[in-house]
Specification:
globular; 19% strand; alpha/beta; 2 domains; binds S-adenosylmethionine; three-stranded antiparallel beta sheet; 10 strands; Rossmann fold
Length: 283
């Protein structure tokens, strides 16, 4: 197998497992990440050794495939990433849900493709700040991602200095985190316990224990990595797991993908475009 053939095999394997596509725009990123992978996995001193290993094992080394997928996924995220999105949750979606739902019914929120959890925890932090309005209403926040390793990080609630400096107000760092050492902070237990994480690939059905619909879903900065023709499969799943009166948000560059067959924008008056289910769709 030549280097280009192996590159193509890695890109194919990545797409089969996650839907994340490699095209001419991100081919160089893939190459750089493979080089980085070799630096971290010291059993492969050079890219050529990795290529030789893959070729001699006919790319059947499951563990290597798992590690490569984990390494190649883009986990870029931050607390309160796209501030207007979180302002819209705080000022519009949360008050709407509190008003429209019976006090005895839990409010269920899902942050899909949540990476290392900052998005889900940002929602939890807002809920803590809005505690006076929420009272004893039950709000359950879930975070999901295809990547096991990044979910383990999310669950730990431990973030580097760089990560807590991105988007998180200093007052919140002081109030809601404990400093573990010079370079790491951990979210306090009462915030961590507000979020449950589970592994889920957006191209697959929900796990059997997640057998309910959500009042609010975030699906941000992930559709962009999928092929045009594959996005409706994900939108269909999201349509099915969103309550008819619930709300959904996409990434700011992804709203154009939110095919109107599945969701319709409800307002351009909020800080951020939000959608509800389009009921006409046959699902
Ligand atoms: C760029 S991050 C976005 C994180 C967060 N939603 C945000 O906007 O800050 C994309 C995440 O999507 C996840 N992902 C990629 N393909 C996925 C799939 N098929 N199902 C679920 N998650 C996926 C990746 O593991 C990664 O953590």
């Amino acid at each position: 197998m030549s280097f280009d053939e192996i590159l193509a095999a890695i890109a194919k394997m990545m797409e089969e497992r996650t839907g994340v596509v490699t095209n001419s725009d991100n081919l160089q990123i893939l190459k750089n990440k493979i080089m980085q992978f070799c630096l971290i996995h010291t059993e492969f001193k050079t890219q050529e050794e990795l290529v030789k290993h893959i070729a001699s094992h006919s790319f059947n080394d499951e563990k290597l495939q798992d590690d490569l997928v984990e390494h190649l996924l883009n986990h870029e995220t931050a607390f309160y990433r796209d501030k207007p999105a979180f302002q819209t949750f705080q000022n519009f979606i949360l008050p709407q849900l509190l008003q429209q739902k019976r006090p005895s019914d839990p409010i269920r929120i899902l942050s899909t493709a949540c990476s290392s959890g900052q998005e889900a925890y940002s929602l939890a932090l807002i809920c803590v700040k809005e505690q006076a309005k929420i009272g004893d209403r039950q709000i359950k926040i879930y975070g999901s991602d295809v990547s096991d390793q990044t979910l383990q990080r999310a669950q730990s609630g431990i973030y580097s200095k760089l990560e807590v400096q991105r988007g998180l107000p200093i007052v919140e760092l002081i109030e809601y985190f404990e400093q573990l050492n010079l370079n790491s902070w951990q979210l306090k237990e009462h915030i961590r316990s507000k979020v449950s994480f589970f592994q889920h690939n957006l191209f697959e059905p929900m796990p059997p224990n997640i057998n309910f619909q959500f009042d609010f879903i975030l699906c941000r900065n992930v559709l962009i990595y999928f092929r045009n023709e594959n996005r409706p499969k994900v939108l269909k799943l999201l349509h099915n797991i969103l309550k008819p009166e619930g709300y959904i948000m996409f990434g700011s560059s992804e709203s154009m993908f939110s095919n109107r067959d599945f969701f319709r924008p409800i307002s351009d008056k909020t800080d951020y475009l939000i959608y509800q289910r389009a009921e006409s769709v046959d699902v």
